[in-house]
Structure formats: C-alpha cells, structure tokens
Write a structure and sequence with these properties.
Number of domains: 3
Distance between the termini: 27 Å
Number of helices: 8
Oligomer: single chain
Structural class: alpha+beta
Radius of gyration: 20 Å
Order of helices and strands: EEHEEEEEHEEEEEHEHHEHEEHEEEHE
Strand content: 25-35%
Helix content: 10-25%
C-alpha cells in the first residue's frame, strides 16, 4: 500500500481547520486495510481513522502519523421476517443512505436526515437528532480488530449504546475499524415524530417519511446544520457540546433562578439540560466572535470557522465557553468532537 505524504486534512473536515497528515492512505478493501495497518505497525506510526470529518478538530500542526480514510461502500437490502435488513458500507455517505431508505418507505432513520459524515461514524457516538438515534435500528456492527486483524461482529447489545456513546468511543476506543453497519428498518412504517419542533410542525397530522425528512432538513438548514459551502455558519463540527445529564436537584437549583429552563427526560431522578441554553445564559450569544472562531449566528451549540480560524482559536473559544458555564452553573460541558494531533 502506497502512502501519500503531507496531505492537508482541513479540506477533509467540515470545520476546515488543521494541518497536514504526515502520511495518508485510503484503502478500498479489507485486504488493503490490513496491509495498511501492518505497514504502519512495522514503521511504528501512530494511526488515526478518519471518516467524513464532520466530528473532528485537527490541530494546526496536523497529525504526525498515518491517517487512514477507509472507503468501503455498497448497500444491500434483504427482507427477513417482515423487516428490511439493510447493510451499508462504512464509507457510504450517511445522508445519501437516509434519503435512499426514505424513498424506499423504510422507517427508522428519517429524523436523522441532513447529518454530515459517513455511515461508519454513526454507531461510534450513537448519532441522534430530533428524537431518534441510530441505536434504535442498528442490529450489528462489523469491525476489523486493529491488533489481531480478525473481523468481529458486535450485536446492538454488545455496542453498549448510551447518549452519544458506545464501546467504540469509550472502553474500546481505537481498537477497531468499522467496516459495515447492519440496520433493521420497518417497511411502510410510520415516521418517528417525537421532537417538539416536529410535533408542533405537524400539529396532529399524520406525516409521511418524506414529510419528516423534508421538515428535518428545513429545520437543520435554518440552523446552518446542513453543509453549505456558501454559508460560513455551516463551517463547524456540528453540535460542539453534549447536553449534560444532571440530577433533578441540580436542575431544580438552576430552574429556581430562571424561567423555562429547557429539559428532557434522562432516566430516574435525572434530566438532560440544553447545552445551548447553558451557553447563551453563560454569556455567549449567537454570532459571538473570538479571533477567526465564533459561535454560529443561527445555533449557539455550533462553534464555527468564521473567518480563517486556526485550530488554536477554536480550542480557545471552546475553553472559554466551558469555563463560563462551569463558573455560572457548576456544570462541566463535554465536547462531542474528536481532537486530533493535540
């Protein structure tokens, strides 16, 4: 496998910041991936697996090792016990996959429309939006063990999905390369309308899967959460912070000083507080700027590359937001992106 050298990583991310990879490879088969990993091991190179680049922040110095961007594509459909089993290569574009499923009247991923990135990235952080998560429809995840070279299949339960979490970004981080994701979708099923904006939009009507997809895309575009080269507010890594889950008593303490603090159920005696609300009420409003970095003018959860930002400026703004929220509310915000080369 031939490695490219000094490949710029910024164009391969949605945030558009960061330096080069010392080496870069894009295997298109499992055999090529195995050969790539073996050569990297022999040469003592650090490895980073890059997907769609929608949830990463690359340092200004880049990555002093090998960046591997697997390009496993292909989607297969098979009916089993009245359900549609769909297997998608990790390198498939996620929104293109969702669009295809909606057109085929397959319910289960429609509210996840417009999310940038690739299929292989979705189980890693249990991607979710507008009341739906991929863990609801993932049957299994096929992976390559980076150490043994063996192909392993993880069931839904094996993945230990939680809010923005799985074994792939926690206990088994950097141990596997995802090759394929297998879903079980419902033929001619009804769309999931659980998010407040969608409930209000349809106001008791019975929308189709296509209606929900269109509505989600419209909402996301209104917040610059759909990639658009002409919109600087979309030069981001998506939602930069997770919504913190806190004890009910913590929420009650905060709510005592404010009107209508947004919350969502999060299990017994716990609630999920809107990170966007915390950020704005800690003093960081939409449109805020710090050097070349900023907060989206349309969505306070998105840190953006407003004007030729450096990775250092993105990190400085991240740190300032975290410090302000901690000082005001005694809550530590957890970033969603992966930080590369820091």
């Amino acid at each position: 496998m031939i490695f490219e050298e000094n490949v710029s990583l910024a164009p391969l991310t949605t945030l558009k910041v960061g330096g080069p990879a010392r080496y870069f490879a894009q295997p298109t088969s499992v055999d090529e991936l195995k050969a790539t990993l073996a050569e990297a091991h022999d040469r003592g190179l650090a490895i980073f697996i890059l997907g769609g680049g929608s949830n990463v922040v690359v340092s200004d110095s880049g990555f002093d090792g090998l960046v591997i961007r697997p390009a496993f594509v292909g989607v297969q459909f098979e009916v089993e016990d009245g359900k549609m089993r769909v297997s998608a290569g990790a390198g498939e574009n996620w929104d293109t996959f969702v669009e295809s499923c909606v057109k085929m009247e397959l319910a289960g991923v429609e509210a996840l429309s417009g999310i940038p990135g690739l299929v292989g990235g979705t189980p890693i952080q249990n991607v979710g939006a507008y009341g739906q998560e991929v863990s609801e429809t993932i049957v299994s995840v096929e992976c390559l063990n980076r150490e043994s070279g063996a192909i392993e299949i993880f069931s839904n339960a094996d993945c230990r999905f939680a809010y923005r979490q799985s074994i792939f970004n926690s206990t088994h981080r950097d141990r596997y390369v995802i090759l394929k994701v297998n879903f079980e979708l419902t033929r001619n099923g009804k769309p999931k309308v659980a998010y407040r904006d969608l409930i209000e939009r349809f106001d008791g009507r019975d929308p189709s899967l296509a209606d929900v997809r269109a509505a989600v895309l419209e909402i996301r575009r209104s917040k610059s959460m759909v990639i658009d080269a002409s919109d600087p507010n979309s030069r981001s890594a998506g939602s930069f912070f997770k919504n913190p889950i806190v004890k009910q008593e913590v929420y009650d303490h905060i709510a005592a000083g404010f009107d209508n603090v947004p919350k969502f159920p999060a299990g017994r005696d716990h609630v999920k507080i809107s990170a966007a609300w915390l950020i704005e009420n800690a003093g960081f409003q939409k449109g805020y700027r710090m050097g070349g970095a900023g907060i989206s003018a349309r969505h306070p959860l998105a840190i953006i590359n407003a004007d030729g930002a450096t990775a250092a400026e993105i990190i400085a703004l991240k740190d300032a937001i975290q410090q302000a929220v901690s000082e005001r509310f005694s809550i530590d915000l957890t970033p969603e992106p992966t930080f590369v080369g820091f």
